[in-house]
Design a protein that fits this description.
Elements: H1 3-7, E1 8-14, H2 19-30, E2 35-40, E3 56-58, H3 66-76, E4 82-86, E5 90-92, H4 96-106, E6 110-118, E7 124-125, E8 128-129, H5 134-143, H6 151-156, E9 167-168, E10 172-176, H7 177-182, H8 195-205, E11 209-220, H9 230-248, H10 252-255, H11 257-281
Parallel strand pairs: 1-2, 1-4, 2-3, 6-11
Antiparallel strand pairs: 4-10, 5-11, 6-7, 6-10, 8-9
Helix pairs in contact: 5-11, 8-9, 9-11
């Protein structure tokens, strides 16, 4: 039995991903994962159970949100060393999970490691990131809706100069089960978005480090589930950003948290207006 088969259990949260989910599960099996838990966050019966083969299917009966869905899935998983968390529209490349397992087994001070995420067109998704300071966060929030590739957003979506990272995308990562459980898993106050950043923040508060491996590669279709509820996802995104600012801000920065909330609220209004105009145009 390989290290992956012996040490890894995968949790995939599904929300109407259909064939993408089938491909995700197949790629996990191809990488040696024998235990796979799928959480059905859509309507009862929306997950294509018959096409998935031998998986543990958890049916909450409602959309719990991403982090809460992972937590429910982990509760149904056996006690293995590592937990692989994945979106349903991710395809894991050959050898990626073995690489992630090797990383954590050889870096005892790291709790979590994320792979390099690429899009279907082979472009790299910026999944390795830093915790933004107040000025970087503010500039990113203000400029990103109008200037997607502005310097603040590029810096926010990049690792530190030495290649180290503070957090990685929740689309796919491997975490030590013991560390995940020690912090209570994902903070379920985050319905969608920033739950990955909050998870890594909470791990850092316990003294753990977060890593990234460019040798482990996955493809993320991105947005398969979000496309069903664009407006709700916009609101959830901004609500989570506000929550993380209040959670992580301390000292003088906390005095600026109300201003950050105002900036994010204004950005949400602009984003919703833009979405409405684009819907009318189409």
């Amino acid at each position: 039995m390989s290290d992956v088969a012996r040490e890894v259990v995968a949790v995939v949260v599904d929300y109407y991903a259909d064939e993408a989910l089938v491909g995700c599960v197949a790629s996990l099996r191809a990488n040696g994962v024998e235990e796979i838990v799928v959480v059905e966050n859509g309507d009862l019966g929306s997950t294509p159970e018959a096409a998935l083969g031998n998986v543990t299917l958890v049916r909450p009966g409602l959309n719990l949100g991403y982090g809460a869905g992972v937590n429910r899935g982990a509760a149904f998983a056996s006690e293995r060393t590592y937990l692989l968390v994945s979106n349903p529209d991710v395809v894991v490349h050959e050898g990626a999970l073995a690489n992630l397992v090797d990383f954590l087994s050889s870096h005892e001070d790291y709790a979590l490691v994320g792979p390099r995420i690429v899009r279907p067109d082979a472009s790299v998704y910026p999944s390795h990131r830093v915790f933004p300071n107040v000025w970087l966060a503010g500039a990113h929030a203000l400029l990103a809706p109008w200037w997607a590739n502005n310097p603040a957003t590029r810096r926010y979506r990049a690792p530190h100069a030495d290649g180290s990272v503070d957090w990685v995308s929740g689309a796919c990562f491997l975490v030590r089960r013991s560390a995940f459980e020690a912090i209570g898993g994902f903070d379920e106050r985050y319905f969608m978005f920033a739950e990955d950043m909050a998870l890594c923040w909470n791990l850092a508060q316990r003294g753990w480090r977060v890593g990234a491996s460019d040798e482990a590669v996955v493809t993320h279709v991105e947005g398969v589930s979000r496309a069903r509820a664009t407006r709700a996802m916009l609101i959830a995104h901004h609500r989570s950003a506000v929550r993380f600012e209040w959670q992580s801000a301390s000292g003088p920065r906390r005095l600026l948290a109300p201003l950050a909330s105002l900036v994010l609220g204004l950005r949400l209004v602009v984003s919703l207006a833009t979405l409405k105009l684009s819907s009318r145009a189409s």
